[in-house]
Specification:
It is a single chain. The protein is of the alpha/beta class. The protein has one domain: Ribonuclease Z/Hydroxyacylglutathione hydrolase-like (Metallo-beta-lactamase, Chain A, 4-Layer Sandwich), CATH 3.60.15. It has a seven-stranded mixed sheet. Strands 7-8-9-10-11-12-13 form a seven-stranded mixed sheet. A hairpin with a 6-residue loop joins strand 1 and strand 2. The chain is globular. It starts with 8 loop residues before the first strand and ends with a strand.
């Protein structure tokens, strides 16, 4: 992808049940959203992505589940980076020893600033203590992120509308999940209103929030056992075709590899 002048870049370092992390960057600053890989693996993926770590100024945490905070304590300490979360998530991080020292608190529903970025955290329905999605703004550009949610609320739609780039969950195929060897209780949790979005539910979300200004769509948190990347891509391609958005090529974030950066 051609890198424009004065770009805002988004790199998904990996996404799935074994680890999640996203970098949002400008020419002078970068923030890490979640740190779900070990510190060593985070370092490796950042190097692979060509991210200048000296630009990193903060780590934002969506929720306390280990696939989003596995490397948080070690990496934040190693790079001397402040950690931002809401109050209840911060308590969960401390209880599970995922942070050392203070956490900079934000209030869900209230926008705040980190350097050049304006961050708008919003509640999402997921089985964590107080999970959030984010809209990240820089200049006139907006990135919407919601990767762990069991259903699509009006609040989620409200925040994800009018974004230039969307990163949304497409976790499982219902048939593959139901036919999997997973325990029934786990299947119920995943399909529940505070679990994860199916491919069909994800496309319903896209239909509700895709805006004329939206240029990019990334599907994330795909299950390696109960989904497949090609299936997610087919769903997204079909959905965009039905919406007459032939200008958008959907991207599917993978667990095992870094997604090339997307520039706005």
């Amino acid at each position: 992808m051609i890198k424009p002048a004065n770009p805002m870049g988004v790199t998904v370092l990996g996404s799935g049940s074994d680890g999640n992390a996203i970098v949002v960057q400008t020419p002078s600053e970068a923030i890490l959203i979640d740190a779900g890989f070990s510190a060593r693996e985070l370092q490796r993926r950042l190097d692979e992505a060509g991210v200048d770590e000296s630009l990193l100024t903060a780590i934002l945490v969506t929720h306390e589940h280990v696939d989003h905070v596995r490397g948080l304590r070690v990496y934040a300490k190693r790079r001397n980076l402040p950690v931002y979360s809401n109050h209840l998530t911060a308590e969960g991080l401390r209880d599970r020893a995922h942070v050392n020292g203070a956490v900079r608190l934000f209030t869900t529903g209230s926008a705040f600033e980190i350097g050049e970025f304006r961050v708008d955290p919003f509640s999402i329905p997921h089985d964590a203590i107080d999970p959030v999605g984010f809209v990240i703004r820089w200049r006139d550009r907006r990135i919407g992120i919601a990767t762990d949610l069991g259903h699509v609320s009006h609040l989620v739609c409200h925040h994800l509308r009018e974004c230039d780039l969307l990163i949304v969950e497409s976790n499982h195929d219902l048939t593959l999940l139901q036919n999997s060897s997973r325990p029934w209780a786990l299947k119920q949790r995943i399909m529940g209103r505070h679990g994860h979005l199916s491919n069909d539910a994800s496309m319903d979300l896209v239909r509700r929030v895709l805006h004329a200004r939206t240029q990019h769509l990334i599907l994330a948190h795909a299950s390696q056992e109960c989904n497949c990347y090609d299936l997610v891509h087919r769903h997204a391609t079909k959905c965009l075709k039905e919406l007459h958005r032939h200008d958008i090529t959907p991207l599917v974030a993978r667990q095992e590899s870094v997604l090339p950066p997307v520039w706005l």
